[in-house]
Amino acid sequence: MKNTLIQLSQFTEKLSRRKLLGGAATVAVALVQNAHGHTLQKGIPQSALDDDPTKVPGVPPGELGTRSPFEKLLKDPSATSSRSPLQDIYGMITPSDLHFERNHGGVPAIDPAKHELLIHGLVEKPLIFKVADLKRFPSVSRIAFLECSGNFRSGKETLRPQDVCGLTSQSEWTGVKLSTIFREAGIKPNATWFLAEGGDAAVMTRSIPVKKGWDDAILAYAQNGEALRPEQGYPLRLFLPGWEGNTSVKWLRRLELSDQPFMTREETSKYTESVNGRVRQFSFDMDARSIITFPSYPQSVEKGWIEIRGIAWSGRGKVVRVEVSTDAGKSWHLAALQDPILDKAHTAFRYLWQWKGDETEIMSRVTDETGYTQPTLKQLVEARGESGGYHFNPITAWQIKRDGAVLFKPEK
Amino acid sequence: MQRPFALSLKLYVQLPILFSVLGVLYTGNDDFQAPNQYLAISDTTQHPASFGFGRPATKAEIDRLDIDIRPDGKGLPAGSGLATKGKIIFDSKCVACHGAGGIGGPNGSLVTTTAAGDKEKRAEKTIGNYWPYATTVFDYIRRAMPFNQPGSLTNEEVYHLTAYLLSANKLIDEKTVIDAKSLPKVIMPAQKLFVPDDRKGGPEVK
Description:
The complex is a heterodimer.
Chain A: E1 4-5, H1 8-15, E2 30-33, E3 39-42, E4 76-77, E5 81-83, E6 101-102, E7 116-121, E8 127-130, H2 131-136, E9 140-147, H3 161-165, E10 168-177, H4 178-185, E11 193-198, E12 205-209, H5 210-215, E13 218-223, E14 226-227, E15 237-239, E16 252-258, E17 273-275, E18 278-281, E19 289-294, E20 304-313, E21 319-325, E22 333-334, E23 336-337, E24 347-355, E25 360-368, H6 377-384, E26 397-400, E27 406-408
Parallel strand pairs in A: 7-16
Antiparallel strand pairs in A: 1-2, 2-3, 4-5, 5-6, 7-8, 9-10, 10-13, 11-12, 11-16, 13-14, 13-15, 17-18, 19-20, 20-24, 21-22, 21-25, 23-24, 25-26, 26-27
Chain B: H1 4-26, E1 55-56, H2 59-65, E2 80-81, H3 83-93, H4 95-98, H5 135-144, H6 155-168, E3 178-179, E4 194-196
Antiparallel strand pairs in B: 2-3
Helix pairs in contact in B: 3-6, 5-6
């Protein structure tokens, strides 16, 4: 089944004397021939875009779908993470290749046939599962967000939603419930915590209360209908709905049941936050948050009707209300919530607004089913005595300038 | 297949009857939930006590992977370390990322000169002023450091480095031997600052 790359000129010569694909000038497409001798395309040729698409035959069917060359969707990588382009995403699902990424020792290359999960410690039967074994268990799928708890940036006006809080994404996750595996191994009554360990270069570890394992934890092997992407933990990850992303340990290789937490580096030196002179630890739940993704920097608007759009979510349950202000927070109006409104999931919201050309600020705030309303940065700073750190989820405002330019509003 | 429309219409008409019959049949089952728009059993209804998938883990298989160290010292291997020996290793393998003497460096200071909880100066979070357990130092170095050669250090080398970093942070005397017995007893000044998360949702901002 080895594909051979064939030259475009060869292809056009062989199949047609016509200007089938606009000549061999620019090629944004790779043409490949499979074992059956069929010629397939990967991508659309740049040159074809200059032609009237109704006057030339299109490219033949392909093995993989492609993204239009007009759509420049990119994550924004740093040395340790890569952020989702929230301002370019529609609806509630993050395309898998745009899901944010955070790792502590790079993305490991793992052969799923060799990968195993060990469960041991305070269990009746220590067991080892191959990924194929885990796929035999009853499966579960759920749509839920995953957000890094270090997901707040400010400081300048030229920040996109991707820069402000691009470390949140949403997928449909499929796997086996951890509770199913707990039953299989037999959790001893004195087990209160479990260690989750990754098979990456950081061999990253987190201690998780056993209760979360029984509640809704998933050992996920699939995301949005296909196997996990390597960046998302291929071939196996823990997925803890509503909890800070770091606890959803990727490349999962080991679970150890214990009667106490292990106090790993990621739950002591990192992923803890200073609060009024103390250090808050094991702050798992992601508090409710929302952000307007349109209009936002670097977009611009025109006078007239504007549908303000965004996403809202809570790690503690469902979104019950999103309010939008178009007068810098003086008055608030209910936004429309797009079905489905799911537990611990990004929920799309919309608010129709007529902009008359005056300079203003627009912002959103969410309330979840516990009655928690997304705070202002000022409220957070007052409550914690800190101006930053993990679990900062403030209301985000966008300035609308007279010329229609949209800029982030960095709060003091 | 010849009259699909007629067949599907027939099924459509019969569907409510089918539902009501199933409803009656299932009412005796504890797992049955009254149908809202659809009819389904709860997730674990047919789960056996054990599926029998996977295989038992042997002690050797567990020991090979079980590398974690608990705050009480459980998991610490044999061996011991000294700060003076640790400094030599640090200067060759760690200094590029963590700076001379563990101060500065592109990937963060490990050693501090400010006391825990010092509000005068917003100090970088280091082992000395922020890490609550000394055992974490051993566990983390052994599993993840050096960044470009993770897992390459011997247990003895990890003990030496642990002793060096604790000594540089003035948490132990330079001559203190760090081993499975002494490491969990090192008092970490920041430990008393750590409190469990008290956020609970609801109207209060915390």
